[in-house]
Amino acid sequence: ARLSKELDGFLDAAGSHGSTPRALIVPHAGYSYSGPAAAWGYKNVDAGAGVRRVFLLGPSHHVFLRRCALSKCAAYATPLGDLAVDRGVYEELRATGHFVDMDVDVDEAEHSLELHLPYIFKCFEMLPEKDRPTLVPIMVGALSTNAEATYGEILAPYLDDDANLFIVSSDFCHWGERFGYQPWDEGRKDVGLHEQIETMDRRGMDIIESKDADAFAAYLKETGNTICGRHPIGVLLQTLRRSGGFDETRVTFTRYEQSSAATGWNDSSVSYASAVVFRDA
After folding, report:
1. Closest C-alpha among 271, 275, 248 to residue 259
2. Most exposed of 4, 83, 130, 225 (fewest Cβ within 10 Å)?
């Protein structure tokens, strides 16, 4: 009950974009850190829009993969209720030969998927159990840009189906010694460190909004920005590129936050951003 109330509080405080999303990009840190930012994505989900399946794409934090992996589980349990895994879609994806199965212990340890499950359940909890969407969890490995394009081609028909909602799990910049990433133009006295981090993040966010998969890959190569869901985002951009509604699709970031405002070398911070992907009517 406490978790349910906490999520309700985050959703009540969040703003709505006003469009029914085809996809979301949302952060996956602990709720005390990124729960409020994630609500700026989930607030837009319309339980009455006929969503039958939720594709959940998250990065792998614990195992190194060069492909995408599927769950061996029949359902994912959350403190609010269970989400059934869509076995039919899984069979279709396995038949492509491009997916592997993840071990259950890896599955259980992966927070990039787990942290979204209560939010997903919360979005549809008012529906009768038989009408709640099934889940299509996909763990995205460290893919080459060519591999991202391959998965984009596989997933594009699913994105074109209004019955499917895509959720992409990613935090943005991880800055600090513990992350091995500390770009900082210390000589710039007019712009603080946390502002420089935000400027770099927003450059990436602008490119994502432009739906340019190649430019996003180039940005990552140039900056090295530690966006942990860069490969799921890359897959989403390639999926958009190959989808039938590319020209009508808009990507809009609705929220940006940092876990703390870094001011010096001893600090660390993680950035959280939420985006809504929708199609013009």
Report:
1. 271
2. 130
